[in-house]
Write a structure and sequence with these properties.
Blueprint lengths: L7 E2 L8 E2 L3 H11 L3 H10 L3 H11 E2 L19 H17 L3 H13 L10 H4 L9
Antiparallel strand pairs: 1-2, 2-3
Helix pairs in contact: 1-2, 1-3, 3-4
C-alpha cells in the first residue's frame, strides 16, 4: 500500500507521530460535533479548547504509515500546548478534506477575491431568459 501524502508531521507528540485524518476519522469528528463540525473544531482550537484538541488528536494522530494510531503520548498529560498543536491539526484536517494544505486554500481564496471573474454584460440572453409561463386566468 502506498504511503499516504495527506499527513502532517507532528513531532510534538514524539518521533514517528503524524496527523492524518482518514474518512473514518472525519466522520468521528462529525459525529462528535454535528453537521457544522468544521466550524466547531476550528473555533474550538482558536478558543484553546483542550477538549476539542484531544478529540482531534484521538481521531487523527497516527504512526508514520498514516494508518495505525500513534500510542506514544498520554492524552491525560500532553507534552505540548494547544497553541503549538492547533496549526498542524487544522492543516491535517484540511488535507484530509481537500488534499491541499490550509495555507494554500487561504491563498487561493485571497486570489479569487482579488481577481473575481468578469461579470457577463447586462441584458445578455443568459441573464434575461425567463421560461414561458402560461397566463394565469
Amino acid at each position: 500500500m502506498a504511503d499516504p501524502q495527506n499527513k502532517v508531521p507532528f513531532f510534538l507528540a514524539g518521533d514517528g507521530a503524524y496527523l492524518r485524518f482518514r474518512t473514518a476519522d472525519l466522520i468521528k469528528l462529525e459525529d462528535t460535533y454535528g453537521e457544522d463540525w468544521q466550524s466547531a473544531v476550528f473555533t474550538g482550537l482558536a478558543r484553546t479548547s483542550h477538549k476539542v484538541m484531544v478529540a482531534c488528536l484521538q481521531a487523527g494522530l497516527k504512526q508514520e504509515d498514516g494508518r495505525k494510531p500513534y500510542s506514544g503520548v498520554s492524552f491525560d498529560d500532553l507534552p505540548f500546548s494547544i497553541d503549538d498543536a492547533a496549526t498542524p491539526i487544522i492543516d491535517a484536517i484540511t488535507l484530509g478534506i481537500s488534499g491541499k494544505p490550509y495555507a494554500e486554500l487561504v491563498e487561493a481564496r485571497r486570489e479569487a477575491a482579488a481577481n473575481p471573474p468578469p461579470e457577463s454584460p447586462s441584458g445578455s440572453a443568459s441573464e434575461s431568459f425567463e421560461p414561458d409561463t402560461p397566463p394565469v386566468s
